[in-house]
Amino acid sequence: MKTTSIRKAMVPAVAAISLSFALAACGNDDTSSDNGSGGSDSSGAASGLSGSVAGGGSSAQEQAQSAWRTGFGQDNPDVKLTYDPVGSGTGRENFISGAYLYAGSDSAMTDDELADAKKTCGADPIEIPVFISPVDVIFNVEGIDDLQLSPETIANIFNGSITTWDDPAIAADNPDADLPSTKIVPVHRSDSSGTTDNFTDYLEKAAGGAWKTPHSSDWPTTSGESGEGTSGMTDAVKAGDGTIGYADDAGVQGTGLGVAKIKVGSEYVAPSADGAAAAMAASEPTSGTPDTVITYDLNRTSDDPSTYPIFLASYEIACPSYDDSNTAAIVKGFLSYMISENGQKAAAANAFSAELPRDIADKEQAIIDQIS
Question: What spans are recorded as compositionally biased (Low complexity) (predicted)?
């Protein structure tokens, strides 16, 4: 099976994209938070704005971003928003370089990235969760329609210790299944991916020491089968027999791939938006972050079967101020729409995500309101 590569990573040169007005890099000009550009409606979205703003990053956000652009565009038909689903790592890089004015990331920025983003923005950047989604363990194995896996078994499949589908560990998780002796072909993301970071974070925390590598947006080896982006992952898993991979739930819908149930406590749990939301509710905010940053230490080890522990809290990254007041108004209005009730319902309908708890959204809105 050939490695699937769907998208090439964006590079800082993307900043040369022609826009209808001069897009300034993030700055710290002290313009008024009331930009005088359009009003707002009950949805939390600004209206009557015009101009163009480029963003990108998380491929898990792709379908949610589509819904957000559509909803925001209904009140702002003269705004052109672009979002390139190039992966979380490239999204963060392009935001820091100034190529993107906002970015989506399925994992929080590191301390070094926060410092670099502060230089780009001229102040601490904004980083807030906007999208909560399960991450599915997907498979394509002739003869297997239903699959149950414990955290230790998943880790040993992806670290190469378990090599065939009739392995005793898989049989123990699936006592009633007639498992084939097919060779297991694990598939990982080839790009720097927040989905990979969340998946390996789960393995590191929940697999009882079976996963030896610290969690990372980059897969620990370049060998083996891989796919770029969410669609590259699902295409790679579909392309062979015996394959197994991981992808956000929205990207799996409609692919026909099998989705494993994951052992949580004494039960096996299917991925769901409600399960991801419950796991998010059981997670603790990260301590010591700037006032403009809301990130979480995600709970992967709950024994409560109402939770689904393989999930991502996907963040939006922006600057607290921009050199151009029109740019500031668009970014401020678009982020406000993302976290509004209407925006969250649109994402849930289009991307099968969980809606943000309103108390978290209210805290985020107070941060967004400071954009100037």
Answer: 42-52
